[in-house]
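Give me structure tokens for this 171-residue protein.
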Amino acid sequence: MAHFIKTSALALAIALSAQAVYAAQDSDDFVEDASAKGVAEVEAGKLAQEKGTSADVKSFADMMVKDHTAANEKLKSLADSKKLEVSTHAQLMDKAKSMILELRSAKSFDQAYANNQVNAHEATIKLFEEEAANGKDADLKAFATATLPKLKAHLEQAKALAKAHGGNAAN
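Here you go.
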């Protein structure tokens, strides 16, 4: 029964966030979504630094914390200048993924984290590509465009990490 509830909660979280990603984004939505995903990356990275067992996972997690903290600070500065609010907590789906990662045993944590990073970066890249292509605010479009290469590099590294740890998200 507990497994059913966890699975149902995850399915609901995925459905809600997938709907949010494909909804038309305005500047406010982009800032909120991008900042929430950034906060989630930092929190997942901190968790992986603590619970990860492999050196490559800990190294990747350290890079995620540093890179996403820097991007979050740039976005916050940009948002503040436009009087837009950034998220201070992770989105529902990202929270659900983090909870699932926490429930994993230490033996499978590295694989779960690597898979999570592939999926999270794919979703974030879609969000940033949409903003870069169709955003209404020139500064936010420029931020999204400038951030995309780093996000794509993270995705490639996450795929390699998933492949190294037997993950199923490495394709």
